Amino acid sequence: MKKFLSMFLKILHATLFVWVCAFYLFTLILNLGVIGFKPVFVVSNSMQNAGINKGEYQIVKKIDVEKLIKLDIIAFKRGGDIILHRIVAISGGENGERIFKTKGDNNAAPDNFTARDSDILGKYIDNDFSQFLVWVLSSEAVLYLLLIPSGLFIALECVSIFRTLTEIEKVVKEKNKTKKDEKDESVNPETHKNA
Fold first, then answer.
1. What phi, psi does 133 have (nearest 5°)?
2. CB under 8 Å to 77, separation ≥6 — which residues?
3. What is the pTM of this model?
């Protein structure tokens, strides 16, 4: 039973380690946009009517800007900000680059700025996969998928360290007892023979 428990704890320990590493790697890859999807953080309620709420992450998919059409919701760079608004008009610009006029659904008027092809980060997607990715980035998911497994991993690591220290202490005590017995025997060999 003790061997089974020891093996179970080792497997659980390894599984938690792999899980935590995989979660970190997945969120890193997602944040870098390597897999074609990128999270954007919503900083205003201008798209609340579309279910895009301030303080949440939303997912945009990299897309060929030529495929964007009127009424698509896009994420684009404007200075140091990322804007997530709906396309209300598309026009031709210099050197064949298109210009996008956008508007937040909750705003009364279109934006007083435009976005160019080179500003576009991606098209907003709203499906089960994107909602899963949004959930993975939420504080609830971090708690369930990262903090609890990390806590269990640390607890198992502490148990492992405690067991190792106990074993070391046991070996040291046995060595000290053996040395003491050998010393006693060398000092008074007759006492040990009669005992």
1. -65, -40
2. 83, 115, 119, 121
3. 0.66
Query: In terms of residue numbers, what domain contains 169?
Result: 1-32+138-187
Name the pLDDT band for 23 (thresholds 50, 70, 90): confident
Q: Is residue 194 part of a domain?
A: no
Question: Any residues with CB less than 8 A from the CB of 156 and at least 6 apart, and which?
Answer: 9, 12, 13, 16
Is residue 192 situated within a structural domain? no
Whether 58 and 10 share a structural domain: no
Residue 8 to residue 128: CA distance in whole angstroms: 35
**142 and 117 in one domain?**
no
| 52 secondary structure, DSSP code | -
Quick one: tokens of 141? 């998911």
- Residue 53: name the closest of 40, 63, 61, 43 by CA: 43
Measure the CA–CA gap between 194 and 144, rounded to whole angstroms: 66
The residue among 136, 125, 137 whose CA lies nearest residue 62 is 125
| 7, 86: one domain | no
User: Are the beta carbons of 56 and 42 closer than 8 angstroms?
Assistant: yes
Indicate if 131 and 155 belong to the same structural domain.
no
Condensed to tens digits (0 to 9), the pLDDT of residues 53-97 reads: 898 889 999 999 999 999 999 999 998 889 999 999 999 877 788
Domain count, the chain: 2
